[in-house]
Amino acid sequence: MPALPPQSLATHRRFDPLFHFFALPVVGLSVIAAIVHAAQRPNWFSAWLVLLSLALVIVTLRARMYALRVQDRLIRLEERLRLNELIAEPLRSRICELSEGQLIALRFASDAEVPGLVQAALAKQLSKADIKKSITSWRGDFFRV
Fold first, then answer.
1. In the structure, how many helices (H) and strands (E) does the chain have?
2. pLDDT of 54 strictly over 60
3. pLDDT value, residue 11
4. DSSP secondary-structure letter at 24?
5. Which residues, 6+ apart, have CB-to-CB distance to 142 below 8 Å?
6. Measuring CA to CA, which residue among 79, 52, 54, 60 is closest to residue 16?
7. How high is the mean pLDDT of the chain?
């Protein structure tokens, strides 16, 4: 298996080509085409096509959001388990105080950086973006949907 390129704050976002460059544009163009068709030939069927294309947009976006939501829950669980192993008391007992966004951002931090970032995140209520900016040794996540 070829080595994956290193990730950083600038390169950690991923695009799913079939979703971002095919499904979304096709669904978006379908809505536009349905609206144009309804404007040119107003009847019940044209109105139905507009409603159907809008429903397709909702289904497409919700399917993506559901997958991301499930993945966020798994990341949250993985990070809580990881933090239990990497940080000592009394900080370990405060893991439950971290927000979902903070836990998701911490997954990119190397094991050596985690204790300091957890302490800072709890003390300063760092946002997801602030935590990612604070990471110096990036740990890639190549499995994100």
1. 6, 0
2. yes
3. 63
4. H
5. 4, 7
6. 60
7. 90
> How are the residues of the chain apportioned to helix, strand and coil, as percentages rounded to the nearest 5?
70, 0, 30
Q: CA-CA distance, 93 to 1, in Å (whole number)?
A: 39
Tens digit of pLDDT for each residue in 81-90? 999 999 998 8
| C-alpha R_g of the chain | 21
* pTM flag (> 0.85): no
List the structure tokens of 96.
Answer: 């439950």
Q: Which residues 6+ apart lie within 8 Å of 87 measured at CB? A: 95, 114, 115, 118
Q: How far apart are CA 105 and CA 76, in angstroms?
A: 10
Could you give the CA distance from residue 5 to residue 14 in angstroms, rounded to a whole number?
13
**In which region does residue 48 sit, left (phi positive, over 0), alpha (psi from -120 to 50) or beta (all else)?**
alpha
CB atoms within 10 A of CB 107: 18
Per-residue pLDDT tens over the stretch 105-137: 999 999 999 999 999 999 999 999 999 999 998
pLDDT above 80: residue 10:
no
Q: Tell me the two tokens of residue 71.
A: 């993945």
